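# step 3/5: fold
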Amino acid sequence: MLEGYPLPQGAGYAILVGLGAVFALGMIAVTAMLRRYQKEIITAEEFATAGRSVNTSLIAAAVVSSWTWAATLLQSTTQAYKNGISGGFWYASGACVQVILFSALSIKSKQIAPGAHTYLEIIKCRYGKITHLIYTYFAVATNILVTAMLLAGGSATVNFLTGMHPVAAIFLLPLGTIVYTLFGGIKATFLTDYVHTIVIVVIIFVFAFAVYASSPLLGSPGVVYDKLTELAKTKPIEGNHEGSYLTFNSKSGGLFFVINIVGNFGTVFLDQGYWNKAIAASPAAALPGYVLGGLAWFAIPALISTTLGLACRCLEDSPSFMYYPNGLSNEQVAEGLVLPVAAYTLLGKGGAMASLLLVFMAVTSAMSAELIAASSLFTYDIYKSYINPQASGKKLIMISHATCIGFGASMIGFSIGLHYGGVSMGFLYELMGVIISSAVLPASLTIFWSKQNWMAATISPVLGSIVGLISWIASAKSLYGSVTYDNLFEDHVMLIGNIVSLLSPAIFIPILTFAFKHESFDWEILKSISRVDETEEILSSEGEPLPQDKESGGLNPITSVATIGKQLAKSNKEKLLQEETEHLAKSAKYASWICAFFALAFLILWPMPLYGSKYIFSKKFFTGWITVLLIWLFFTAFMVCIYPLWEGRFGIFTTCRGLYWDLTGQTYKLREWQNSNPDQLHVVKSQISNAIHEHGNSDDDVDKIRYIDDELKQ
């Protein structure tokens, strides 16, 4: 049995402070290079949307990275430890489908509201202020719960591996992320997500090959299979068919599967972080980015859980096990410590360091997405909506920066409170759906169903949340006789609360819609949501005064890139808008079929025959299962490590060439190239995208908006 901690405290501080500083300084340098060589100027629009031009591979990489939380690694591994081989699959399939389904919302939102910065802007434009404020609560609650889980799981792992006090870990984990997010905005999130994902994928490969190929403690799928078969006789899993670790027929696993599906609908559909990526995606990248990202993500929890979750079970009776001759306590399992215990037992200090690095990458990559999400919500849905509707771009980006700092500091304090209150990551993960998922259905129908009226959209999520919480608490009292933390954490209790919260609006919405006045909503009204005018920010960032006559052509092309972008778009606006509209319409048609296919495949066609047949894996089938997951992770590696380099090859070449020109004293060549190729500059492309959707409200538009406002007031 290990005495002390696997790693010294210095290792924890080196990762949290040192590596966090490296990422922060690296992102500052990258932001400076992108600004100099590709004219990526961080305006308010750029901070939140990256010019709405991010390509498929970076969207996919960002989805993989942002969805790879601490819970993805720790909770999935915990489920495999508790429920056997099905546990990791239940986690992966139950959380993969939502990302793929979200692609349909992504396409639809870009069709009907191309100028929106958040999904709450769409809700406000359609239903008015009261509804908007209600959904703002659900959006902020989602950000808080996700961030709290990140810090709870990450700090527990850091404390376990290094002995660093959990409060210190909670404080230090977000610092570097806050810094680089401030400098680079959502583009910093995309770029650091790419680096984080590479590290995560490499470490998972190391663990997988150690367990199934090289470790003297295990070393092959056959050895793991034999040990799991023996454990079914000596330590059977209650509720699994014949107590087996190698069957999908698991009572606890099946309950978690439903809880996982329900909770993650809220986490994806109501998290502004995913809407930010959808808004930042180019029209051509939105559908493939989310579908490929969801498919690539699946292998990460599926393989890491099948590797370390099962390995931890197999190694508990080995003298090398960290807590030999005892197993893990229920508290340690709930805190998500299965992964680091298995990693240390397998690979010693190297495994402990790898698991520390893995969790650090998962926490910080998801944290950056939550910071941008929170800043977007406060900037556009609170400050611009209610405090200063005429705010300039400079004022908005200042508010975005302040929100990043304020939200980060608030979450540090909140997470410290949860730590001292004894609330674990696993509890938050399962509670999440009870609190937020009642808003999923009405928020989605806001975009997809023109007949949902104000009453249904406004009242159904509130009623759903209330009955969900009542069902959760009442079921604990009814089933276990008292309402305690442990009883509220029971599978059946969480299941009841989650299902009632998600599905009760399906009853309330049609009743409220057809009981009160409802008319088909005119989707064209949503196109009145406008983007922020970046002209002043761009010109001032170049050190030039804003011209009195913006139509004058006497400015240097580089300092008047906003004007150039608008002029280029003006000459070809109708064609560009038509192409984008046709592409989005085609993507929307494909999205419905793709979403239906993968939902059926991951939720029914693949797992249910294995569950219903009570099949116990044979050694050959188990070996094939592991082989498929390894191949799938190679696909993930290609999608998120190699493909982004290929799609970004022109930008990489442009940056490297500009850097070479500067280092060799040929800066004049950089200016010449920028002057002669303005259409290749990012800021000009951003202005073209902005200009093709730019329009003042016509008299008809104003009349429609006034009519809707009058209806809402009545």
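# step 4/5: annotate
The chain has one domain: 9-647+681-713.
# step 5/5: archive (pending)
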